[in-house]
Amino acid sequence: MRYVIIGAGAVGGTIGGELFRSGQEVLLVARGAHHAALREGGLRLLTPESVEVLQVPCADSPVETRDDDVLIVATKSQDTIAALEPWPRHLPVVCAQNGVANEAMALRRFERVYGVCVWLPAAHLEPGVVAAYGWPYAGMLQVGRYPQGVDDLAERLAADLAKSRFAAEAVPDVMRWKYGKLLGNLGNAVEALCGHADGTAELAERARAEGRTVLSAAGLAHTSPQEERDKRGDQVDLRPIGGAPRGGGSSWQSLARGTGSIEADYLNGEIVLLGRLHGVPAPVNEVLQREAVRAAREKLPPGSLPVDRLRELIDERCAAVSR
Ligand SMILES: NC(=O)c1ccc[n+]([C@@H]2O[C@H](COP(=O)([O-])OP(=O)(O)OC[C@H]3O[C@@H](n4cnc5c(N)ncnc54)[C@H](OP(=O)(O)O)[C@@H]3O)[C@@H](O)[C@H]2O)c1
Fold it and tell me: Domain 178-322 is of which CATH architecture?
């Protein structure tokens, strides 16, 4: 089996690098300066206790595929369709991403789709370099067939991940885990917009409370923070690398890199969509989605919006929808 990692950034680079390090066959698919750096110098994988340069095979476009290829897509959700488009549709697709929309986008095109709930604190801010801050495991990964169930491939992937530096298991209800993770990720936009200022935790919690109400109205099951903590235990702690902690999560990194896009339409936007479908207002997530998308388009750096201003915008929208 060969793991073809489409989008070898923070998550894809860590998963691909760790699988390669443990002896699995891996192909990293990247583009632009990142692909050039991987091709010329290999993948520089930084962890809290090591710096390794891994000569992982890489490509910048679809290669000749093999029947034992497994496509692992690890792009941001807004890039999923374009990233999967060129690949043959008989291959299995594994979505190692946040949000809950990628699996359905893939299943429209590919027959066999798998989801992964990704607890993996990593960063990719420089071409050729991926930093994996999780310790002692790089991450915790629940793997399952979409929409539900476990089959041989889910078991095999979980086993291969567990042989490398991941706490991984196959679960029959991967989307329940991913809806729980989605609730956690509703704070990503707050961190991207306001950085780590006082008052951000309260705004993130308001987004999550609204998210729980919306998921409940939609009848969607999700894990609880306690269940997630119990499962994670002390398997994945965040440790600094080179004396520095991780600057911020994946949405924060999108603004830091000035990529021009952000995942908010698939994180806060998922709650907004479900709220609209089920007649439940979601003003907090609406504002977070709108402001995060605006900041990304305008290429503003992370932390450019004062937390008091964001609270004001949210309160105005909450007042408007309750009128
Ligand atoms: N970072 C974390 O700590 C973390 C933790 C848990 C879950 N997640 C989730 O994991 C997913 C990936 O996030 P990430 O932080 O790893 O993102 P990332 O660092 O931006 O990596 C994504 C990579 O995909 C590349 N890409 C996009 N479209 C492509 C295409 N068509 N072909 C080839 N490569 C393509 C991007 O290239 P460009 O740079 O050229 O756009 C980028 O290198 C997201 O759903 C995120 O929410 C992230």
Answer: Orthogonal Bundle (1.10)
Predicted local confidence at residue 233, as pLDDT: 87
Q: In whole angstroms, what is the distance from residue 300 CA to residue 302 CA? A: 7
Mean pLDDT of the chain: 97
The finding on whether 4 has its CB within 6 A of some atom of ligand 1 is no
Entry field: residues in the chain: 323
pTM higher than 0.70, yes or no?
Answer: yes
Domain ranges in the chain are 2-172, 178-322
Quickly name the fold that domain 2-172 has: Rossmann fold (3.40.50)
**Burial of 115: CB neighbours in 10 Å, binned 0-12, 13-18, 19+:** buried
Q: Is 83 in the pocket of ligand 1 (CB under 6 A)?
A: yes
Token code pair at residue 303: 């932390």
Rg (CA), the chain: 19
Map tokens 């699988």 to a residue: 19
Question: In sequence order, what are the residues at sequence separation of 6 or more whose Cβ sits closer than 8 angstroms to the Cβ of residue 29?
Answer: 4, 5, 6, 7, 8, 58, 59, 60, 61, 62
Atom of ligand 1 nearest to the CA of 97: 45
Cα end-to-end span (Å), the chain: 57
The verdict on the CB of residue 72 being under 6 Å from ligand 1 is no
Give the DSSP H/E element, type plus range, for residue 117: strand 113-119
For ligand 1, mutation pick of 103, 137, 250, 299 (most atoms within 8 Å of CB): 250
